[in-house]
Specification:
The chain contains 7 helices and 2 strands, in the order E-E-H-H-H-H-H-H-H. By secondary structure, the chain is mainly α. The protein folds into 2 domains: 5-93, Rna Polymerase Sigma Factor, Chain: A (Orthogonal Bundle), CATH 1.10.1740; 96-179, Winged helix-like DNA-binding domain superfamily/Winged helix DNA-binding domain (Arc Repressor Mutant, subunit A, Orthogonal Bundle). It has a two-stranded antiparallel ribbon. A hairpin with a 5-residue loop joins strand 1 (5-6) and strand 2 (12-13).
């Protein structure tokens, strides 16, 4: 008879088997997911980010479950891993928001050279950019700020050059309508 491993909540399975790993993951997920989610939500203040952080923790464990056999305090490990995942998401969010603010400022400088109008223009641009599709935003950033050609952008985003040019044109048109300015964009 083979020895069995007892997991959390008294669940038993053959050690090292796929079944045992699944049972173990399900067991720790059932026991800790709600607490980890509440913790991640407190750190990130966004439901989606909290869910992503917890999912990342369990995905990391499921990719390399044998690595966690030596963890002596699974609860402490899970909370530490959740904290790290949440902070990683927050760092990414700050970079994204900083880039977004820089883009808005650069475009506002072109659209409203008068500094009194600039902060109001930045707000309008920020809202207008938020309304663009991710594909249009991506092309505008690469074209306007990174000064790439349509050919370079097409290669970067792996899309046909005409598609890239269309995304740029439609994005610019949406920004112009939002700004009420047809010149210098």
């Amino acid at each position: 008879m083979y020895a069995q491993t007892t997991f959390l909540n008294g669940v038993r399975a053959m050690p090292g088997t796929h079944e045992a790993i699944e049972i173990w993951l399900r067991s720790i997920h059932d026991q800790y997911a709600a607490s980890l989610y509440r913790y991640a939500l407190a750190l990130t203040c966004r439901v989606e980010d909290a869910q992503d952080a917890v999912q990342e923790v369990f995905a990391r464990i499921s990719r390399q479950p044998k690595r966690f056999t030596e963890v002596t305090n699974i609860r402490a490990y899970l909370f530490s891993a959740t904290r790290n995942a949440a902070y990683s998401i927050l760092r990414g969010r700050r970079r994204c928001e900083a880039l977004h603010d820089a883009i808005c400022s650069d475009i506002a400088a072109v659209c409203a050279p008068d500094t009194r109008q600039m902060s109001a223009t930045i707000i309008v641009i920020r809202d207008a950019i938020a309304q663009l599709s991710i594909e249009q935003r991506e092309v505008l950033v690469l074209k306007i700020l990174d000064q790439m050609t349509f050919k370079e952008i097409a290669h970067t985003v792996k899309a046909p050059m005409n598609t890239v040019a269309g995304r740029y044109r439609y994005g610019i048109e949406k920004l112009r309508r939002a700004l009420g300015a047809v010149n210098n964009v």
